[in-house]
Each structure stands twice: as structure tokens, then as C-alpha cells.
Amino acid sequence: MATQTWALVHLPLHPGEFPCSSIYSNFDCILNRIHNRNRTKESLARIPWIIWFLWMRNAKVFDNKEISPMKVIQSATSEAESWRLAQITPEVTEENTNTSAPELLYRPPQRPFCRFDASWKGDDACYGGGLVIENEDGTTTFANYLWCFQLVCIDSLL
Q: Which domain of life is it from (predicted)?
């Protein structure tokens, strides 16, 4: 059935080139050599779908269903066209002709400003952090800290 299906595709093949006994040579021929022989985009787009429908045929064979080579070609052609159409993105046209600069939603803070962060674990006696200060002249100061303390249970003090 696969041989009949590929015969219906009319691939640009040399005599004895395809199919052969090696599955690797067959895939090389279909996926590489044929692509280099100036086939149309439409016929090349069907090849992955033909491979897919031939592989899907195995499940149909196990379910005692037969699929004709022509049905494989028709399904592959239909899916290739559906895929091509799905890849077309409509062009978005700008309806607003206002050419003024948009208003910024985010306004950067005035300098100097400080960014900081800290981290700790609930059962650890230490915590640490860091900070970055950016001055009006653009200079930046970095700092980090580690603070350790002794945990004291309030119940034991009473």
C-alpha cells in the first residue's frame, strides 16, 4: 500500500532510487533528495502528511480497516492545505492615525533611589540581604549584609 501511495505522488525519482530495502535510504530520499530537486511548495508540503497518514495506516490495519492509497493522498493534500492556511497571519492595520507619542504608563522614579531584598529560612538563626543605591549622578552603590541572632524561646523566660 505504501509503494502504491508513493507511486501516486509522482515524485522526481531516478530509476531504482525509491523505494529500496533500507528505511534510512528511503527517508533520506523523501526528506532530502526530493527537496533539492526543485519541486513545488505544494507538493513538498504534502510529504510529511503522506508519511503521517501511512504511519496512521498501521493503526487502521490493526483495527481491520483498510485505507486506499488515493485516500492517503487526498487526506495528505487536505491537511497540507489546512496547515498552510493556518500559518497565514492577517496583517493588522493601524486604525488610529494619531501620530503623537503615547503616554508612558510607567514613570521611572527620580534619583536617588534604593532597591533591596532579603532572604531567610524559618528555622535558621541568620538572614541576609542586599541593596543597590543609585545616586542622582548615576553612580551606583552595592551592599550586602548577613545578620545572625540567637533564638530565644519566650516560654522558657517565664
A: Eukaryota
Q: In this predicted model, what pLDDT tens digit does every residue of 31-43 receive, in sequence order?
A: 777 777 766 777 7
* DSSP letters for 29-89: IIIIITGGG---HHHHHHHHHHHHHHHHHHHHHHTT----HHHHHHHHHHHHHHHHHHT--
Residue 129 has pLDDT above 80, yes or no: yes
Closest to 54 (Cα-Cα) out of 39, 33, 75, 34? 75
Q: Please provide the size of the chain in residues.
A: 158
Structural domain boundaries in the chain? 2-86, 113-157
Confidence (pLDDT) at 109: 60
Return the closest-CA partner of residue 5 out of 30, 24, 22: 30
pLDDT beyond 80 at 120: no
Nearest alpha carbon to residue 127 among 146, 101, 142, 108: 146
